[in-house]
Each structure stands twice: as structure tokens, then as C-alpha cells.
Amino acid sequence: MTDDTLPSSSLPENLTEKRIRDLLQRPDSPAHAILSFAQLDGVSVQHGHAHIALSTSRENAEKLTPIRSAVEAEIAKLPGLTGATLSLTSHRPNTPQPAPPQPAGHRPFNLGKGKPAHAIVPDVTTVIAVASGKGGVGKSTTAVNLAVSLAKTGLKTGLLDADIYGPSLPRMLGQSTRPEVKDSRIIPIEAWGIKTMSIGYLVDEKQAMIWRGPMVMGALTQFLGEVEWGHLDVLVIDMPPGTGDAQLTLAQKLGPKLAKGGAVIVSTPQDIALIDARRGVSMFERMETPILGIVENMSYFCCPNCNHRTELFGHGGARAEAENASVPFLGEIPLLAAIRASGDDGTPITLSAPESEAALAYTRLAETIAETIKTKL
């Protein structure tokens, strides 16, 4: 029995991957056309489904769209396959940069002619990084309500969603307007008394950001240097989860302004989240960024019917971690359905229900941080 006569499910994946590469390289194959517009980065097969990674320019990505489905269908006909997906990674070609010099790395947003380099948030006095060692702990909800509450104290406030792969700020603020570009500068979207920017304003909500590190760093650099933030007392940054390149880049570029503000670490009470929060504290300490404190989110749940308090994820872990790390403990945020609903509805709970237990907790957090900031203005 030859390889061609093997049942589809029996074909070795490396053999199937070789056949995909051969098909793409054959000049007589219609699938070969994609190599006129893209470079083959990799091929993998999992459970009969082929994933083909291609790198291309943004301009050529548009040319691939009309033939993409046909190529996927042709590849899926190969023995051993049940389907195929082409993944496009868009990048800018490596070409000499004209004067004036451009920021390091890729620049994914075309802001018009000239593309001048700009200083990093020149009119922003202080920066607060809202961070966590992992996702899913309520960091973005905390950042949004903190920013809105800081503005209510009288501080001119901005909010930057730095999570390129999972932007949530537009939905949580109820905004879908695409920002204007004037003189190669992005005009931030104003919502609920604050200036805001997110990649979610620039791409479709369903679009996956299949970007490599240089593209992400380039986008963050443009958000810092090519957004018309104007004068702000404080810029709150909803940091991406983890302690990788994006976090280090932001900490390095914003060093002096972060030194006037600092980092707020968000965690839930259970040990598995506190391990990652500990990493976040360690990263900022190594970057010589002040730690404003740790917030315990989802600290407890109160039944809306009987007011019985249940500590679903444990309780007090963040306070204990703050004491061990010798950093301030900034308070407890309860786990309430109203917080989730306010985020989905696009109105922060500090505005939709300002007297609620959750809103008061966010307000106390903002007042504590505002006192620290105002001493440095």
C-alpha cells in the first residue's frame, strides 16, 4: 500500500505538510498564486486541518482576499486533510527610512504624508499602569472605572488600551467611532469625561490581530507618540496581561512619567492569581517603577436576594501579598453582576450606579491614587 492509498486519517502529518508545500511551489497549481503576494512562513497540520502562515504587506493582503477561499479549498482536497486555513501576518517591508528618522520598529498605522516622529506623550504629567500577571482578573474593568473616577476628582485624564490582541475598551465605554487623523496625528475618542485610545477603534471587533512582536511594539509607540493626547494630568494605561515585551517597552518608554505615577496591580484572591501578581510586582520593581499598590478584585460575592456574603475565590490573599511585598493594599472590589452588566452596556458602574458598593470601592481607589498624584503635579 502506498502513501496515496492510505486512509486520510492515517497519513503522517509531516507527509501532509510536505504535500502542502509542494502544492504551493508547483507553478501549474492555482494555489501557487498566493506566493506572488506573500511569503510562506510555516505549515502545520492538526487533526486533519491545515494551518498555513503567510507574511505579506498590508497592500498585498488585500489582493489575496479574492483568491483566499479558493486556495484554502484546493489545499483541503489533499489526502489527509478535512480543511485548511490561511493566516496572514501583515508587515511593512524593510526599506530605508527617509528623514526625519522614524520611531524604532514597525509602524502599522498609516497616518498620512510625512509620518513625523513625535515625543512620547509630551504633555502628560503622570502615567499609571494598571497591570496583572495574567488575564481574566478584571484589570480592564478596574482601569476604566479608575480613569473615570480620577476624572471626577478634577484631574484631566486619559485612558490607553494597550492590549493589542484583546482590546476591550471600546465595548466597555460604549464607543465605536473611528478616530480622525489630522496632520498625521490620531485624535483620541472622548467618552465619559476622559480621552481614550484603543486599537479596537481602528479594527473590526471580529478581526483577529495576527501580529508579530515588532508590529505590536510599533502600534504601542504610535499610540504614545502620534496620538494628540494634549495636556493630561494623568494617563491610565490598561496594560496587556503578562510580563513580556509589550510591558517592558511601555515601562522603558514611559520611565520618567511612570516614576511620577506608578503601577496598580490587580489580582483575585486565589493563590494561582497571586503567583502572577507577584511576577507583575517584581517586573515593575526591576524597572524602578513605583508600586502604588495591589487591588483585590472579585474579593467576595453578595447574594442580591439575601445579602449573604460568599468568598468564592477565597479572601484576603491580595492584602497578605501586599504586606509580604511591602506595598500598599488599595482595597477590595466585590464580584457583582452589575459590574459585568455595566461593562457590556458601555457605561462604567461608577457612573451608572455611583452609590453602589462596587462604585464606592472604585471611587475610594481613585481618591487614594489622586492624593498621591496631586502631590507630584
Write the layout of secondary structure elements.
Blueprint: H1 13-25, E1 39-46, E2 49-56, H2 58-76, E3 83-90, E4 124-131, H3 139-152, E5 157-161, H4 169-173, E6 181-182, E7 185-186, E8 189-191, E9 194-198, H5 213-225, E10 232-238, H6 245-253, H7 255-260, E11 262-267, H8 271-286, E12 291-296, E13 301-302, E14 309-310, H9 317-325, E15 329-332, H10 337-345, H11 349-352, H12 357-374
Parallel strand pairs: 2-3, 4-10, 4-11, 5-9, 5-10, 11-12, 12-15
Antiparallel strand pairs: 1-2, 6-7, 8-9, 13-14
Helix pairs in contact: 3-12, 5-6, 8-9
Description:
It is a single chain. This protein has helices spanning 13-25, 58-76, 139-152, 169-173, 213-225, 245-253, 255-260, 271-286, 317-325, 337-345, 349-352, 357-374; strands spanning 39-46, 49-56, 83-90, 124-131, 157-161, 181-182, 185-186, 189-191, 194-198, 232-238, 262-267, 291-296, 301-302, 309-310, 329-332. It is of the alpha/beta class and 377 residues long. The protein has two domains: 10-90, Histidine-containing Protein, Chain: A (2-Layer Sandwich), CATH 3.30.1340; 124-374, Rossmann fold, CATH 3.40.50. 40% of the residues are buried.
- Outline: globular
Strand composition percent: 15-25%
Using the CA coordinates, give the radius of gyration: 24 Å
Overall pLDDT score:
79
Number of helices: 12
Helix content: 25-40%
Uncertain segments are 1-11, 91-105
Which CATH class of the largest domain applies here? Alpha Beta
- The string of secondary-structure elements, in order, is HEEHEEHEHEEEEHEHHEHEEEHEHHH
Order of strands across the main sheet: 8-9-5-10-4-11-12-15
User: How many structurally independent domains?
Assistant: 2
Would you identify the CATH architecture of the largest domain? 3-Layer(aba) Sandwich
Report the CATH superfamily of the largest domain.
P-loop containing nucleotide triphosphate hydrolases
Could you describe the largest sheet, including whether it forms a barrel? 8 strands, mixed
* Number of distinct beta strands: 15
What is the CATH T-level topology of the largest domain? Rossmann fold
- By secondary-structure content and strand pairing, the structural class works out as alpha/beta
Could you tell me how far the N terminus lies from the C terminus, measured between alpha carbons in angstroms? Answer: 79 Å
